[in-house]
User: Fold this.
Amino acid sequence: MKMILIYSGGLDSTVLLHHLVNQNHEVHALTFIYGQTHAREIHAAEHFAQRLRVPHVIERLTLPGTSALQGGCTIPDGHYEAETMRATVVPGRNLVMLSHALAHAAALGADLVSFAAHAGDHAIYPDCRTEFLCCMDQVAQVYHYECVRLDAPFIKLRKEDIVRRGFSMDIELERTWSCYKGGELHCGTCGTCVERREAFQLAGVPDLTTYEG
Amino acid sequence: MKMILIYSGGLDSTVLLHHLVNQNHEVHALTFIYGQTHAREIHAAEHFAQRLRVPHVIERLTLPGTSALQGGCTIPDGHYEAETMRATVVPGRNLVMLSHALAHAAALGADLVSFAAHAGDHAIYPDCRTEFLCCMDQVAQVYHYECVRLDAPFIKLRKEDIVRRGFSMDIELERTWSCYKGGELHCGTCGTCVERREAFQLAGVPDLTTYEG
Assistant:
C-alpha cells in the first residue's frame, strides 16, 4: 500500500516507520518544521529516512499560538499528565499536520495517511483522541476524488509497548529524539523525557539515551 | 460572535466579510498565499480588510501538487463545469485552509470559522461539498478543548444571489478579484471569469469589472 507517514523523528513514529517498511508498504515520510524548539528531532528523522531509503519531505508550517514548544514560554518539568503540561499544546497542530498529509496523499495518489498517536497521548492532547481521529478519517474519505483512509496503528499501545516493539526490531532507539527542550542532550526532566525514561523501564529494555547530568 | 473568516479577496468571501461585519460579529480575516498565480486577490483582500478595519492575517502555505492555479500548467478557458477545469483543483486546499483557520480559532478563542463556499462550487471541488463541510464541522467540535463550529452561510446560494446581496450592500464588487490568470485585468475567459460575468448577468446587476480586450 502507498502511504504517507507523519514522521517527527521521535520514538513512536520511528518505530512506526520501521513497522510499515517491514510490511513492505511504499512509505513516504513527511516531517514538519513549525518553529519547535526541539528541532533536533528533524535530524533524527533525516537519519532514519535515509537509512531506510524512504522518500522524505520536510515541510515548513506556520502555526499560531504561543506554545512552550515554539518558544512561547518555558518548557515545564515533571510528569506528562500534570496540568502544567498543557503549556506544550500547540493549538490544532495534529489537525493541521494531518490535513497537509492528506493533501500530499491526494497529490501522490496514496491510499493512506499513517500517524503514530498512542494510548498515552490522549490524556493531554485533544487531537490525539480516538474521537478526533475517527472524525478525521471521515474527512479523509470525502475531501478529494479518491477515498483516503487515516490509520493510527499504535492508538491502543502504551509507550512501553512501542519501546518493546522497537527493541525487537533492533532499531537504534537512542538516536530518536523526544526532549522538548532542544539542548545538545535529552534533558531527562521535561514531560516527554520523563515519559521516555519510564517507558524504557516499564518495557524492561535498556535505555541507551544519553541524558544531561 | 468571535470568528475567523477564510478570506481570499474574491467576490464570494468579500460579500461574506461585509455580511458578517454588518451583523456586528468580531471578524478576523485570514488570507493564504499558496503560490497561486492569481495573487492579485490578496491585494483585494487587503483593500477590503483595511476599509472595514478588520484584523487581517496573511499566512504562507506550502501545498503539494501541480495545479494550474500554482503555475503547474496553463489555466483552461471555458465554462467552470467543464471537465478541463479539474486542472484548477489544488489537492486538499480547502481542507488545509480550514485546518489552519481552526488552529487560529483555538489560539484566539474564536467560536466559529466561516467560509464562503456556495452552491455552484461543488460541481468540481470535492472539498466544497456539503458532505465534506459536515465532516469538517464534526472535526471542529473535537480537535481542541473548546468546541468550535464551521459555518458556510452561502452554501445554498448561487453566485448570482451573492452578487445581488453584495450590490444591495453597496460593495465595490469590481474591486474583488476572481480571474485565475493573474494578469493586470480580469481575462474574461477563464472558468472563474466566465462564472463571474454570468453571475452579474443573471443577477441583473451592472458588472463594473474591467475585462481584457
About this structure: Chain B touches chain A at residues 59-66, 91-96, 98-100, 102-108, 126-127, 129, 131-132, 135-136, 138-139, 142-145 (CB under 8 Å). The CA atoms of residues 86 and 124 of chain B lie 7 Å apart.
